[in-house]
Amino acid sequence: MSEDTGDTPPVDGHGQKRGRRRLSWIGGGVALVLVAGGIVAVPQIVHAQRVSEYAELVSLRDTAFADRAQAEATLEAAMALTLAQQSETGVLAQRLADLGQTPEPILPAQHAGELAAAGEAVASVIGEATEPEQQRAQAHERLVAGVAELQAQDQAARAEAEAAGEELPEPLAPASYLSLDIDAAAAVIGAEPVPEKVRAVADGDVTPELIEETRTEVASIEEETADLAALIRTEEQRMAEFTGAIESTVPTLRAAAEGAAAVAPQLVEHAPKAPDASNVAVTAAHQAQEIASTEDAARILDGLAAYVEAARAAQAEHEAVVQREAAEAAARAEAERRQNANREGNSGGGSKGSRLCSRYRPSPGGGGSLVLVYC
Length: 375
Known about the structure:
This protein is mainly α and 375 residues long. The chain folds into two domains: 24-247, Ferritin; 249-375. Helix content is 72%, strand content 4%. The chain contains nine helices and two strands.
């Protein structure tokens, strides 16, 4: 009996059939392993995709929170600045109206009337005064307090520089609320964005429902930010109306300053008793004329108001001198009349009622005294 070494060729094809059956069994086993592994691998891949999608949404949510916080801080500053500019515009409107009441010869009647009309136009842009809402009022208080603090720092810095003989530093406080923008107002207020924070869940807790909920949350935050941006634009438009109303007065103010410089020399003629004060007013008129070459309505208004104040002071001084001289003349006339009357009385001449006589006047408690009366 021979030993089968495995190298003997198969007989009648039976060996080939057994080989095919063995390969078929092995191949089926591999396929079964692959299918079984796929049952586990597919859910893991899907979950990994969900975790990645959730992480991206969390990042978008953090950005949305930051954008909303920034919009809230910007709106707070805008509301404060709008109220401050509204108040300042109202003051300028009233000052224009007051200048419109300036009589001749300080200002020509035409220019005075134009100033009054300009004041009414600016006031119409402001509208009726209403009580600001609490959020706006509180933000405005913080802005005003911040500017006051900067002004105090400026004052201390100027005093220190003057004491040291150094050049005066640039001021920190704004010269006008109308010169501020929203970012500068936010810096004065100290409005810092405080984004909301929501902690992300662990990867193992990510579900399709959580993803959808986070996506909805992001959309809601972005919508709120868009609403805040619309409110900010409304505040910006309101401030632009104030600025435009003030800028529209520049031609009127410029013409009035030119008119003031033309008529100011007449003050010397109309107030001859106050030559120094009249000259001060003339100088102020020329300074207002120089300032009028700028586009700064507030500065031109300041210069024009300074001239009107100096001119009124010159007129008041002139009137005071005239009244004092009149009173002194009346006093001298009265003294002269009395002196003449006494002289006639002492000489015994004069008519009755123009001489002084002594009479005894009894006192209520007894006794009496001599008094002089006309007789």
